[in-house]
Description:
about 35% helix; about 220 residues; binds D-xylitol-5-phosphate; 8 helices; binds zinc ion
Amino acid sequence: MxxxxxxxxxxxxxxxxxxVRKVEDAGAEWLHLDVMDGMFVPNISFGPDVIRSVxxxxxxxxDVHLMIMDPIRYIDGFVKAGADLITFHYExxxxxxxxxxxxxAAGKKAAISLKPATPASVLEPFLPYLDMVLxxxxxxxxxxxxxxxxxxxxxxxxREMIKKSGRDIDVQVDGGINAETTKTxxxxxxxxxxxxxxxxxxxxxAKAVLDIRSAAENSYCG
Length: 222
Ligand code: DX5
Ligand code: ZN
């Protein structure tokens, strides 16, 4: 099933509640919340307190993308803040299984994200325990970058691995997603589309959500 996950990183933070309502009313099922610590990535965004206050305003699935070192330290905090799904980076810690276990023990969905240079093969031991895999289509850290088409081999490889596993695991893409690049990503096997600037930077955010959804539905070959 196709899911659209608008990234609030690109919204107007002075009216966060209103921005979130806009994409929820447009039918986006998920809300993508990018957490950056200035260490794992060279940028700082927001933490659990902001997520907790948005939680009161929205029924969407809260899709929390942790771009932080040693994520295990903060899993409890993000669970309490209202995360439904927590994604951490393969490159951000050593004991990935411990992080997955901690997320699952809290009754939440777990996902691993791969930076552009990290190959799909590292996922193999973790697939039986994951609900989603996030393939970054830009270097993490900033919104508004150009979609890396050369990540599509990795998306296809992950979709193949998932098919073989027999489990129902989502494949998410994040970075440079708009109605055009969605076609390429969905055709390669991505079914969860994260989009920041192409939604919140559009004159009509609701239309941008609908355009990404129809592009995904017409191109997805899962
Ligand atoms: C980048 C973040 C993305 C970002 C995407 O590190 O993970 O979620 O907000 O922004 P756009 O859609 O503008 O590339
Ligand atoms: Zn993200």
